[in-house]
Write a structure and sequence with these properties.
The protein is α/β, with parallel strands linked by helices and 225 residues long. Helices cover 18% and strands 35% of the residues.
Length: 225
C-alpha cells in the first residue's frame, strides 16, 4: 500500500482528553505525576472493560527519575502493574492511574548520571491497533508525517509546536503484553484526541474532535524540574 499524504486533511495531535468518572480525582493524580500541563480530563460514564487500547508513556533521563515518577504515581493512588526494572532497552515501570489510564515511565539509560529530577523529556500516546500499516496509512492520508516505522509493528509520527504529546501506533496485543495486562477489552477507549482539522474516528475506534486549548492554568506544555 502506498503511503502518500492527502491534500484534503491537514491535522496534528494538539490535545489529549481523558474521559474519567471523577475529573477532580483525575486532575489531582495528573498534578502529582507532573503531567497536568499535557492532558485534559472530562466526565464520562461510558462503559469500558479490560484493556482500553492505549497507554501514555513518559520518557525521562535516568533510572532514578523513573523511580521518582513511579513512586509519585503510586503515592497518588496508582496501581503498580510492572515494577521498574532493567531490560535490554533501558529501565522502566508501568502503573494504572485511579481513573484506569495506564502510564509507562521509562528511560533508555541503564545507570544514573546525577540526582533524580522531575523533568519529562517526552510524552507519547501509544495507540494499540489491529493493523499498524493500515493505521499508518489512515493517518498519513490525514496529513500526519511518519517519523519512524518498523514494518507492521510500530509507527511514530512527527509532532509540531502545537502537539504536547507525540502520537505512535503499536500492535494492540504487543502493547498489552508490554504493559503486563490482558489484551481483551470492550466499550469506550475513554480517550479523545484533539486535532487541528476535522472530527473523525480511526479504524480502531479512537475518536478525534476539534482540539481543546492548553490545560488549565498553562499556556504551553512544559517539563517539570
Amino acid at each position: 500500500m502506498t503511503t502518500t499524504a492527502s491534500t484534503t486533511f491537514r491535522t496534528s495531535l494538539a490535545s489529549v482528553t481523558l474521559e474519567v468518572a471523577d475529573p477532580e480525582v483525575a486532575r489531582s493524580f495528573s498534578a502529582a505525576l507532573g503531567v497536568d500541563t499535557y492532558i485534559h480530563q472530562r466526565a464520562s460514564e461510558a462503559p469500558s472493560t479490560g484493556f482500553r487500547g492505549f497507554t501514555l508513556a513518559l520518557t525521562v533521563s535516568q533510572p532514578a527519575t523513573v523511580d521518582g515518577f513511579v513512586g509519585a504515581a503510586t503515592a497518588a493512588g496508582a496501581t503498580l502493574l510492572k515494577p521498574a526494572t532493567k531490560s535490554m532497552w533501558g529501565y522502566g515501570g508501568v502503573v494504572r492511574a485511579p481513573d484506569g489510564t495506564i502510564w509507562k515511565i521509562a528511560t533508555p539509560a541503564k545507570r544514573d548520571t546525577g540526582p533524580a529530577t522531575r523533568e519529562i523529556d517526552e510524552m507519547v500516546l501509544l495507540l494499540g491497533v489491529e493493523d499498524v500499516k493500515a493505521g499508518k496509512q489512515f493517518y498519513v492520508e490525514r496529513g500526519l508525517t511518519v517519523a519512524r516505522s518498523f514494518g507492521g509493528k510500530y509507527a511514530e509520527f512527527t509532532s509540531d509546536e502545537s502537539s504536547p504529546v507525540k502520537l505512535a501506533l503499536y500492535k494492540r496485543r504487543g502493547l498489552a503484553k508490554d504493559l503486563g495486562v490482558p489484551a481483551d477489552g470492550t466499550g469506550s477507549h475513554r480517550i479523545v484526541l484533539g486535532g487541528t482539522a476535522g472530527s473523525f474516528t480511526d479504524p480502531d475506534g479512537f475518536v478525534w474532535e476539534a482540539a481543546v486549548g492548553p490545560a488549565p492554568g498553562t499556556s504551553t506544555p512544559r517539563a517539570r524540574s
